[in-house]
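Q: Could you predict the 3D structure of D-inositol 3-phosphate glycosyltransferase?
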Amino acid sequence: MHVVVVAHTRHPISQPFAGGLESVTWHLARGLVARGHRVSVFADRHSDPIPGVDYLWPDRLELSEAARRDVSMPEEGWMERHHAYLQLMLHLARRTDVDLVHTHALHHLPAAMAPTLSVPTVLTLHTPPTPWLESAIAIAGTAPRRDRLHVTAVSRWTAAAWHHVTPARVVRNGVDVREWTPGPGGPGLVWSGRIVPEKAPHLAARIARRAGLPLTIAGPVSDEDYAREMLWPWCGRDGGVSYAGHLPTAELARLVGRSAALLVTPAWDEPFGLVAAEALACGTPVLGFARGGLPEVVGPGVGRLVPPADDATLVEQAAALVPDVVRLPRARARAHAVAHHSMDRMVEDYLGVYDDVLAAAPPHPLGPVVGPAVAS
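A: Sure. Here are the predicted structure tokens for D-inositol 3-phosphate glycosyltransferase:
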């Protein structure tokens, strides 16, 4: 089949990935190509090329000076994304060589305009409800061709969070277990992810210090103010906490594999928790907070999760569990990731969704592309 994968254009789909959403989109496209499907990807122009993938690059927005001077002119990045997705959806409405559109974008237009297409759209929910996307799904659900939009969610928790808007079939995220390979472990702890308040790496620093173990932090600094005020003061203290930077996948996998345990310290309800799946694939057990979809990723035999509480209680209880977590069998963690969180399992699950959606959809005519294609 020919699948158009729609990415979120705020960040390029390139390594090192800005976050789990970008990683999942990239691996899904690669996995579909490996299974012989034709894949087109709509993504930021700075995305890494994937062999066998056709790219639909968004045109650059050229606004007149008069429009820019208008008092209603929104933030430029918002306007560029609006232009990009509107252009894409109008383009897809003219095409007759596509079988299915699969959007991972957080933007509302691919969902709101799904009924305008002659083929089904699968929307994957990667976040808790947001106002723009909630509105778009509600509007699409009242359209004459509302059966064109089908929804999945990355965890049972995420599906439940959206239940008041739409039912969603659960397809959990996956990691490439050929990239995230078993490591020997080591004496220290590791934390990985975007450095932002909702990920709360400063709590990981407090846990490591309380437990008396070194901690290495890796990931992109997405909030400079937070990092400066809450995280950097912990780094360099007696060598206990260090920052490794935003590492490519291979280097990050080696770091995680050489660590005794991964700390996952969300200050919000994680829709999934991809970093935990990556660590388990390396044989590294996980110690985290039981929020959002994380309990669906980390089972009792491969990690420990602390129930929600105030920060001081979370730190105290997590630090007390460190000796138990670092003794968990690494082979069991690896086996759990291969069985439940692999990229291959994710791709096969999505193909099952595609088959069901296409089986229920009316046929559409095949033929050449009508009208100009998006610039490639």
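Q: Anything worth pointing out?
A: The radius of gyration is 22 Å.
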